[in-house]
Every structure is written in C-alpha cells, then in structure tokens.
Design goal:
Structural class: alpha+beta
Number of domains: 1
Number of strands: 12
CATH superfamily: LURP1-related
Strand content: 25-35%
CATH class: Mainly Beta
Number of helices: 2
CATH topology: Porin
CATH architecture: Beta Barrel
Shape: globular
Order of helices and strands: EEEEEEEEEHEEEH
Helix content: 10-25%
Amino acid sequence: MNSEVSNPPPNYTDTTGAGGNKEYPVDVKEDTHASDDDECEINVPPTEGHKIFNVEFAKKSYHMDYLIKDENLEPLYYCDNKMVTASLRGGKPDVTFHKGGDVSGPIVGASRSNIWGTKHEVCFGDPDTSNEYTELHVKNIVSMTCTWSPSNSSKKYTWKRIHGKEAQEHGGRKSSLLSIKLVDDETGEIVALYLNNGPKNWRTAGVYKIKIDEKGGDEWYKAVLLTGCVLTEKERRNRRWTYSSGAHGGP
C-alpha cells in the first residue's frame, strides 16, 4: 500500500487525562544482546553530497526523547516520545518534533500511532494548524518495509530495515535491528540511512546520512528525519512491550 495524503484527524485533544503532566514508568533501552566483537561506536564514512545528522538520547528525558543535531552538533530538533500511544491518549500525538533543543520550541511535526497497528498518521507541521498529513503503512513488520510519498510530490520512497553485513558496510553495527535505509523507488538509489548504535553507548542513539536535495531543502531533511524517527520509535516500543511482558525474558 502506497502512502497517501490523508485528511486531518478529527481531534488531537487529549480527552483521557493521560496527557498533561502525568508521569509514567521509566522507559528501557533496546537489548540486542550484542556480541563482544561488535564495534562500540558506529562509524559513518563521510559521503560527498550527503548531510550527517546525529541523534542523541536527550538528557533527563523521561520517555527516551531524542535530540537531533547537525554536523556541527548544534541542536536542530527535539523529538518528544510519549510512552502512551495516541490511541490511548484521546488522539493526542505520541511523537512530536520541536524546533531547537527542547520542548519549548515550536512544533514542526507530529505523529499518531496505536499499540498493535502498522499505520502511522504523520503531520508535517503543527497538528493544530497544518493540513499536511501523510500515512505511513508498514507493509512487512520483519523488514520494516514502508512506502512513503512526500507531501505535494509524486515520488515514492521506501524505508526498509538493514542489519548484519549490509549495515556494517555503511558504517553501522551489524547486531542492531533498528537501522534503516530510504530507497528511491524509481531509481533504486539509497537516499538516506539511519544507523543505530544499539545499547553500546547510552548517550548516542545513532546517525542519519541524508542525500542533499537543493530543491527540497530543509523540508526534505525534516520529512526524512520525522518519518524515520516515527518508524524506529514504533519498533523500539514494540520490542520494549515484548520484553516487559516477559516473552523473551528481557527487562
């Protein structure tokens, strides 16, 4: 199923009382049981025509929020990840992108997901004022395959999980299951990568490498970062719930 621009959701208001300042149990990091021979740090080689974006776990983050920085380590976006999904929060977004280094910055993107479903509604802009929505539909849970079209564009791209030797060839850790690539459906070219650092480093979450798009500019980078973060955050949550339920004996 291809991504399509959808109508705005009828309601982003938290009517359940689950939002606001209520606190929830502390999140846990993924546990990939990395082997000792895995490299401790991801090492993304610089590539001409691409930009690097660093992803860190935000300090004092209660829900494993992310801080996205540019190549000079200047904060660009703060990704606010709520533990409770939108379906349990009266439709209020569970992933929100703020411009700058904390939640005080203006909202530039948001997403709504449910616990078990494979569809994610993404808003490019503040959901209270923006009409730019798209639907991400994960067609294959194992490979995390998701086709996506940017707003006001006929081009189609596909996010897909990479691991093992493929991830390692791009400078990522082969044991991580949260690394993904973005492929141009027409040309087959890889236009973006997210290489996850797994549990090896508490502060560094991973690195995005995105092909420069002079026409799309900052909106192109923001769209790639937002859709990529939504998919990897959903996957991380799924695994956290699986481990917390004791299905794999994890924490």
